[in-house]
Design brief:
By secondary structure, this protein is α/β, with parallel strands linked by helices. It has eleven helices and 15 strands. It has an eight-stranded parallel beta barrel, surrounded by six helices. A hairpin with a 6-residue loop joins strand 2 and strand 3. Helix 2 runs parallel beside helix 3, helix 5 crosses helix 7 and helix 8 crosses helix 10. The longest helix has 19 residues. It starts with 13 loop residues before the first strand and ends in a 16-residue tail after the last strand. The structure holds guanosine-5'-monophosphate. The site of guanosine-5'-monophosphate (5GP) has 25 residues, from strand 11.
Length: 349
């Protein structure tokens, strides 16, 4: 056993120091980013925020709104090739902004091949809670061989050496985050994890050295966290909870008295495991929870608020483009983030 005593930080531990800026308005900030991917050699331009491949959030209805703002959506993985075919007809342009998500079993490779016979998108998301298993690297290599020109995002990991391995194995984007998610209980159940801001800083450094990309996945609770993830070097940011609870999310509105909610759960929660596997297998524990999140209306307003917040971050540090944000950022360590004296009395935000 050894103890690493270097300081590791989370979004809540830092703020971004303002810098002299010649920008006069948020409207001068360009949130679009050009990416050329390492292995597929594909080019993509857009605002690099991705809805998570979770039930409720990774839906085509969410994708439709996000695409209007050049954002991407990772569709949840329990969608059959037949359903993809239907969706490809119902949402022909939208599907181009969607990731096809799968796990790492033999059947997942078959699923990918079947989906790509009927669907026209460039994006694949290879998703496993623990990206440290050797079988994952082998699977990434096989998917790269089968799809040399698709953009492959693979994760999740939190350390530079694994980011390098995944990029060398054929990934274009490595997804970073173990345990920070809003409905994740991995840290509680296993004691494993890594503070997200430091994970992103270290993994981005490793990836950029090889001209690869990273996606910060999990732990963003407000627009300021998303800005901090980009400022830390993330090329993409994936959001689950921040997009939950909207009209476009699947599931009914739940009414309790005068309050309205929508269901949201972790993909390793008991609820998800029972839904997709019929049970929680005896040898494993759930590593996610189920919550009812306050109903928030159309997702459009949340997206505009989020993009407005990040534009404002950029103006505070003088970054005319999102890609300059990281270079212009100095993080300062803080012991307090916000003044919450009136939080119990809040009527709107
Ligand atoms: P959020 O944006 O809600 O904080 O985090 C979303 C991320 O949490 C997802 O993209 C995924 O990586 C992770 N996640 C989703 N469901 C679960 C779960 O059941 N357990 C764990 N450990 N992580 C989850």
């Amino acid at each position: 056993m050894r103890i690493e005593a270097d300081l590791k930080l989370d979004f809540k531990d830092v703020l971004i120091r303002p810098k002299r800026s010649t920008l006069t308005s948020r409207s001068q900030v360009d949130l679009n980013k050009d990416c050329k991917f390492l292995n597929s050699k594909k080019h993509w331009t857009g605002t690099p925020i991705i809805a998570a491949n979770m039930d409720h959030v990774g839906t085509f209805e969410v994708a439709k709104v996000l695409k209007e703002h050049q954002l991407l959506t990772a569709i949840q993985k329990f969608i059959s090739p037949n359903e993809w075919k239907k969706m490809n007809k119902a949402f022909p342009e939208v599907v181009k902004s969607c990731f096809v998500s799968v796990g790492i079993h033999e059947k997942d490779l078959d699923q990918l091949k079947a989906v790509f016979k009927v669907v026209d998108t460039d994006f694949i998301c290879l998703d496993i809670a623990n990206g440290y298993v050797q079988g994952f690297i082998d699977f990434v290599k096989r998917v790269r061989e089968a799809f040399p020109h698709k953009v492959i995002m693979a994760g999740n990991v939190v350390t530079g050496e694994m980011v390098e391995e995944l990029l060398i194995a054929g990934a274009d984007i490595v997804k970073v985050g173990i345990g920070p998610g809003s409905v994740c209980t991995t840290r509680k159940k296993t004691g494993v994890g890594y503070p997200q801001l430091s994970a992103v800083i270290e993994c981005a450094d490793a990836a950029h050295g090889l001209k690869g990309h990273v996606c910060s996945d999990g732990g963003c609770t407000v627009a300021g966290d998303v800005a901090k993830a980009f400022a830390a070097g993330a090329d993409f940011v994936m959001l689950g909870g921040m997009f939950a609870g909207h009209d476009e999310c699947s599931g009914e509105i739940i009414e309790e008295g005068s309050k309205k909610y929508k269901r949201f759960y972790g993909m390793s929660s008991s609820e998800a495991m029972v839904k997709y596997h019929g049970e929680v297998a005896e040898y494993r524990a759930s590593e996610g929870k189920s919550v009812n999140v306050p109903y928030r209306g159309p997702i459009e307003y949340t997206v505009l608020d989020l993009l407005g917040g990040i534009r404002s971050t950029c103006t505070y540090v003088g970054a005319a483009k999102l890609k300059e944000l990281s270079k212009r950022t100095t993080f300062i360590r803080v012991t307090k983030q916000i003044n919450d004296i009136y939080t119990p009395f809040q009527i709107s935000d």
